Amino acid sequence: MQNSQHGNLKNNPKYPKRYKTEEFTLFEGDVRLYRVNASGDVWQFSTWISQEKKYFRKSLRTKDRELAQDRARELFYEIQGKIRIGDKLFDITIREVADRFLEEQQKRVRVGDTGGGKIGITEGRFSTIRTQLNRHLVPFLGEKTKLQDIDGNQFRNSYTQWRKKRSPNVTDVTIINERATIGSVFRFAFDKQWIRQNQLPRWEEMRKNARSRDALELDEWREVYTYLRTWTKNDTEDHIIFQKDMVREFILILANTGLRFGELRYLRWGNVRLFTEKDENGRDEVKSRIDVEISKTGRRQDVIGMRGDLFQRLKKLTRHTDARDYIFADPKTGGMLDKKIYYRHWDEIIRNTGLKSKHPKPTFYCLRHTYATFRLLEDVPVFDIAENMGTSVKFIEEHYGHVKRIQRSQVLTRRTRKSEQTKSYLSEF
């Protein structure tokens, strides 16, 4: 045992027992000033912090009694001021900072799940922030790591390498988004005066055009919708056939409108108006005008979608067709179709097509990228695409720069008129 080897520390003359040699109180006993034998005649400060359920102790660094009283009063007033504004008095860990930041973000969540305006954040965004902190930032630094021990330079390169070692398929854009959240956490701590400016994270440069490979290639998209044509041929259960029919239309509408997964899932029949236009061959073409009420970027109206006939097909699949009914409704309850149904059938599509070898694994969101990419290839103005998708021109230019490279290549190498291959990429189902 340790004590038998080194002797009882209490009785060891190398470690003399600590005891107070002098003591008095201020503020009706809330503050204690004392001297201990181990610190000579230097006065010590102690006060109970009920909010933290522990004592705050500090050396007053003086042997003079009157000067010690003056410093004790100043320190006590400073402590009370920090308590009133919610500042931490003790060394704070990265875990505690993350929790405090999440508490603040929780207050910003818009009422009504995803809300309808641009103030605050959506429940989905809050969930993303929580994941970024709990699964990545805190494990990277160590749950018990104190803020005072963190150097802003330790993020440079190290965080990216750590993330890619843990998740080889993680995309650069995911890391860029995580870096933005981490920066917000540390600015929050800086505003609270918990850290110094040189502790703010510093990062290596990363390319912003990180989502270029997330969009489906034309051949990949063709394989998906070809598979969807015979998707239910071996199914015999009505509820499975219904689910697959709904998910099929969901996929096609996402790719034809650029809507986000949640935006389409929340759509009601009253949000969609169909109209007919003549195509370049003089044939009638049904299109849609969509009012997006629920979105992480706020409401937007008159989103123009191709393939309005998909909504006509949907009306034949469901009995929930009133204006206030969800378009993708559960046949029994009328509520929104469960998310798990979408994900389960999407995974089946991935497994049974060439997408199973695509990295990173395609998600529903890749259909939004596919829409943007194909629209740009059709020379639709960037401003119009950004307006329709509820994003900024800058975002489109930064994240779809690869399309410009493709277009330049086509211009430099083509000998005949522009290829028509993408013309009907979404009209063949």
Structure description:
GO terms for molecular function: DNA binding. Keywords: DNA recombination, DNA-binding. Residues 211-414 form the Tyr recombinase domain. The strands form 2 sheets. A 4-stranded antiparallel β-sheet has the order 1-2-3-4, with helices on one face. The chain has a 3-stranded antiparallel β-sheet with strand order 5-6-7. Mean pLDDT is 84; it is low at 1-10, 113-117 and 415-424. The protein folds into 3 domains: 20-85; 94-199, DNA polymerase, domain 1 (Orthogonal Bundle), CATH 1.10.150; 218-413, hpI Integrase, Chain A, CATH 1.10.443. It has 429 residues and is an alpha+beta fold. The chain is built from 15 helices and 7 strands. The chain has helices at residues 2-6, 65-85, 94-108, 123-141, 158-166, 172-191, 218-229, 238-257, 261-265, 309-317, 339-351, 365-377, 382-389, 393-399, 401-413, and strands at residues 20-26, 31-36, 44-49, 54-59, 272-278, 284-292, 300-305.
